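Ticket #4471: structure output looks truncated?

Reporter: J.K.
Steps to reproduce: submitted the chain below (707 residues) through the standard prediction queue, then opened the result file.
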Amino acid sequence: MPQNRAHAVNGDRSAASRLLIVAGVAVLWMAAVFGRLGYLQLFRHSEYLARAQRQQQHTIEITPKRGSIFDRNGHPLAMSIPVDSAFAVPAEMVDQPLAARLLSGVLGIPRDVLEERLASSRSFVWIARKLPPDKKEAVEALSLKGVYFQKENQRIYPKRDLAAHLLGFVNLDEKGIGGLESELENKIGGKSEKIIVMADARQRWFDGGEAQRERGADVVLTLDEKIQYIAERELSAAIVKTHAIAGTVIVMNPNNGEILALANWPKFNPNTATDAPAETRMNRAVSAIYEPGSTFKLVTLAAALDQGITRPEEVFNCENGAVYIAGHRIRDHKPFGLLTVSDILAQSSDVGAIKIALRLGAPKFYDYIRAFGFGQLTGVDLPGESRGMLEHVETWQPVSIGSISMGQEVGVTPIQLINAVSAIANGGMLYRPHVISELRRGGTALPPEGLLAPVEPRRVIRAETAATLRRLMEGVILNGTGSLARLDGWTAAGKTGSAQKIDPDTGHYSATQLIASFSGFAPISNPAVTILVSLDSPVGEHEGGQVAAPVFKRIAEQVLPYLDVPRDVPTGRLVQTAYRNRGNADSAALEDFTPADFSAQSDKLPDPAEAGAAAPKAHHTVDKTPIVTVAVDASGEIPVEDFAGKTMREVTEACLRLGLEPVLIGSGLALEQSPAAGTSVRRGARITVQFGAPAQKIAKTAEKVRQ
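Returned output as attached by the reporter:
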């Protein structure tokens, strides 16, 4: 018994020891576990959290919401709209080859390309970005497992190729490539937007929400959509008629440097910019360098008159059309004898200009050329501007002063030339040309800085010199080479140019390849617009007075009444201010886009407000002309509006909207019209409208009663 009792005690002690050992081990294990957990939680938390997020989340950087671009009246020229992009999670796909084949059929993407994309990752791959609505619906209809959609932003240009070179375009990631889209990338581009896509334990994906949404600033331009359309239409018509290889038209307000229109040919559609060759996308207005030819005689005469070394009535012997400088014989385009300074400009005598420049001297001549802005940047707020070409006076050859005085041996850009002509028009002040009016965010104008910072104009010639030169330039149109630029109802001044191009085969000036140009302004007493027209290598008639001056006339006779510029020349003739030569077969080919299409195209696009493009307000005059629904019968005729009491601008806009040609007579408010209001006419018909003071209408009515 005592032995049994001793064995029992020993057994209890052994069991207790084993329990203590087990408990100790458990405590140590728990301490190790909790210690490890504490270590991971306190010291390795960030690392493991990042690992989990990498497994469960995928951050997608999508295109930002760019600010919209408006013309001066609040019409949208560029805007961003939401579109769908398709992506896939390959790990969720049951049959990737089948999915690739089905997607290839609806998207038009090669099957092997899609298979390669799906094989590149198990978590996320783009299938196709920025899908048109029909393709998005087609992909959705396939109901493929692992295929999802994500909203992105897409840049659209609702007026297609209108002002394309000025606006520029963007790439797939909404980065500005050319024009203002590139120049203002930091302002209107907005910040990158990131979308977090998350996965659950079964690798099923869902949208985790937006990380940020900050859109760029809106841009308001000095450009006027309607004037831009007029400039592009007339340039296109001139290209068709003359078969020129390229061309440029600029319309500017000479009193402040605002660019109202800037048109180039060839042109492109920024909605499909990548389909256009690089040379087509070139903004020739600021980048193309060419010898200006006779238009540069304006600088020659401006310098001489400002220095007081000659006067308009002074007579020069033009040597019957030839002069020798440093052993070089320079011939005139015609054999002139004695010409006054006025006639030297009107008849564009090279010999006369050379003699005036020789009297002025090379140093002074060079100073005035620089003062007018040649050989340097104008500072225009557009990318790609060229300085032009102007050798320093110390490197001039003995013959250089003669060559430069008539527009050779110097390279200019269209923007430099129209800016110089504008200085003559406004009384001698050189402004910085600009196309940006202001930046706005949330309806508030941003402080002007950088490109928008105001630049004080500087005087280049005396006001008296500018006034004299304006009178001489009027003589170019009334009695000289620019007769085809003469306006019906307004005074105008200008200068023709026919600059020979260098023949690449011979290295000499070509007799047939020229830059034909005309630069001018109207009216003379209070210029409202300066217009430059340049045509590169027209075929057949190729002089500036023959092919460029008529384009100036057509543009000016449409723009001036649109701007409500009063007529300053009495006229008893009918004044046609709408498009000319509509019956011409070449012009008929350009009827693919009329002003009426503006409303039609806009109706097909999202409302700017819905797309986040709030139209600017503030001090800009917004065109509030209502969209008119025109009833057209089976024969294609439309009823004529009642124009009584409307201004010339209102009548012009209404006629352009209806596709009619306005013939405007007089000034003031509309008194009479023919055909009468309510009459049915075909599109393209002429509508004659008589303008005057209301008292004139009362007098006419009383006279009819007496009769």
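Triage note (M.O.): checked the attachment and the full token line is present. The longest strand covers residues 509-522.
Status: closed, working as intended.
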